Amino acid sequence: MELVQQLMKSLDLNEQQAKGGIGALLYIVKDHVAHSSFHEIKTLLPEAEAWMRLSPEGGEGFIGLLDGIFGSVAGGKLDAFARMGGHFQSLGISPTMVKPFTGIVLAYMCERLPAGGRNQVTKLNDALMA
């Protein structure tokens, strides 16, 4: 819950928005890190699966939209943020919050994960925040 509280305070979100946004972002993370690394994330964030269920459409439609965006260096980051913006809007979060939200969540994970998961989340963070 520390991460949820941090998002609520930093970005002026309610609890449902913070949890649903984390859930939406976790679908991206899950799709782009090794299974063992995602297991480390679920250990760090025991509520991860519940938060993923809170994201609109249970995340499945969102992941379909994101299929393959990280394979394109030129448009991947912009596509991810644009699509997350639409997803965040359905949670009542301004699309302008996507980048700061993503930065807070990924930094939180990078600071607390063991080396394997941390390295993979750091690479994803660097790709999105560059």
Description:
This protein is mostly helical and 130 residues long. It has one domain. The protein is built from 8 helices and no strands. The protein has helices at residues 2-11, 15-32, 35-44, 48-54, 60-66, 73-90, 98-112, 115-129. Helix 2 (15-32) packs across helix 5 (60-66). The chain is globular. Residues 58-75 have low confidence and may be disordered.
Summarize the entry for a quick read.
This protein is mainly α. The chain has helices at 2-11, 15-32, 35-44, 48-54, 60-66, 73-90, 98-112, 115-129.
Enumerate how many helices there are, as a single number. 8
Give the H and E element order. HHHHHHHH
Q: What fraction of residues sit in β-strands?
A: under 5%
Percent helix among the residues?
A: over 70%
Distance between the termini: 28 Å
Major pleated sheet: none
Rg, alpha carbons: 13 Å
Q: What is the oligomeric state here?
A: single chain
pLDDT < 50 stretches: 58-75
What structural class is derived from the secondary structure elements? mainly alpha
Average pLDDT reading:
81
Q: What is the overall silhouette?
A: globular
